[in-house]
Structure formats: structure tokens, C-alpha cells
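Dock S-adenosylmethionine; give full complex structure.
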Amino acid sequence: MRIDVVTIFPGLFGPFLETSLVGKARAAGLVEIEAWDLRDFTSDRHRSVDDEPYGGGGGMVMTAPPWLAAMDRIGADRSVHRILLSPQGDRLDDARVRKLAEVGDLVLMCGRYEGIDERVRELVVDEELSIGDYVLNGGEVAAMVVIEAVCRQVPGVVGLADSVENESFRNGLLDYPHYTRPPVVGGLSVPEVLRSGDHKAISEWRRRMALRATRAKRPDLLDEG
Ligand code: SAM
């Protein structure tokens, strides 16, 4: 799995890419991730990436040439899937995350300001992705969401394959509740069955709790099934 991110703030990705599971996955060679500075693809002295909008109005628009130059260079030697992070894109969900993990070679394009000149979308973007119906200042945090969600699907990144398979949304259900020591917290005890050692009973209880959580918190998931 390889992910290239193009941004005017590559520094935002430093600690993110070195920490926790993403950091470990990179160190183990399970995923390769590189953050590129869009300004490295500019050709003027000021390394400018934005200009005033045609038609007037507030805000600036990211110009097409640096983006096209970056897309020419990144993935020139291989087939890549280019994703524009955008509030106007399809909403990211578990099914799409799994599909992206299968694609394997992603380029994440992070907009800023009012967004990127529309012709970039028409010329080089394969897919427009949103992380939700709200507007962020830029695509960087959205790119981190995609990276973290997709990397979890790469075999070996999350210690036990089982813990990815039983997570929320897999099998159309939310996850069951989890408990750890101490056995009593604020007067609440751990459900007896989890301390029984009866694996069949534990598995049935977890399935019932997953159904109950889904019915209470996300009944729409059951309707979809
Ligand atoms: N003018 C745009 C609009 O109203 O649709 C919003 C531009 S936003 C301020 C700047 C950049 O942030 C976008 O180009 C996109 O890359 C990113 N962005 C903002 N909200 C996002 C979201 N919900 N999902 C993914 N990317 C988002």
C-alpha cells in the first residue's frame, strides 16, 4: 500500500505519520506514505499556489498548474488512484475504506482556500471524497482520516486480524461493549458472562450486545441489511 499526499502544509503530517499504528506500519514497511509540498511544483519566485476567483467574490482559489505538475510527477511510473478531498464528494464509509485499501496506490489531494480550480477535478481526479457534511479549512485532516482508516485494513497493521473483523460497521453492526480491569467501577460490575471463561456464551452475549447497540444507536444500519 502506498499513499501520496499533496498539500501546502506537509509539516502537518510529520508527527501523524510517525505515531501509533500508522508510524509502526510505515516502520515495518507495510505502508509507504509521503507528504508532498504543492509549492515544490510551482514555477514562480513566490511559489504561489492561489489566485483571485474569476467572476469576483471573496476568497482565493488554488491554481491549476501546480496541481497538474504534481499529478504529472506523482505516479508517473505507475497507476495511481487520485482522490480529491472535498465536502462535495461521496461520503467516506466503511465499505469505501475497504475498497480503497484494495486499490492500494492512492494520491490524496488537499485543497485550501475556496478550493481548487475546477479544471483540475475534470482533468486528473478519479474520485471526490468527503469525510462529512461540514466544511473544514483544508483537506489535510480529511486526508489523515482516510490514511488512518485505510491503513487499518492493511493486513498486519492492526495486531490481530480479528480486531478489525469485529469492528463497528463490519457485518452491518456496531461493535459490542468492551470492559477491562478493575471489575467494579463507580458501582458498575463487569457482566458476569465475560468472566465465566465460557467462550460460546461470551460470543453469544457479544452478538446480542452488538445488535442491541446497533438498534439503539444506529437503527439505519439494520434497515440497510
Ligand atoms: N468552497 C468549498 C465549498 O464550499 O464546497 C469549501 C472549500 S474548503 C474551505 C477548503 C478545502 O478543504 C477543500 O478544497 C477540501 O480539500 C477540504 N475540505 C473541506 N471540507 C471537507 C470535507 N468535509 N471533506 C473533505 N475535504 C474537505
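Observed: Residues 85-88, 110-112, 114-116, 130-132, 134-139, 142 surround S-adenosylmethionine (CB under 6 Å).
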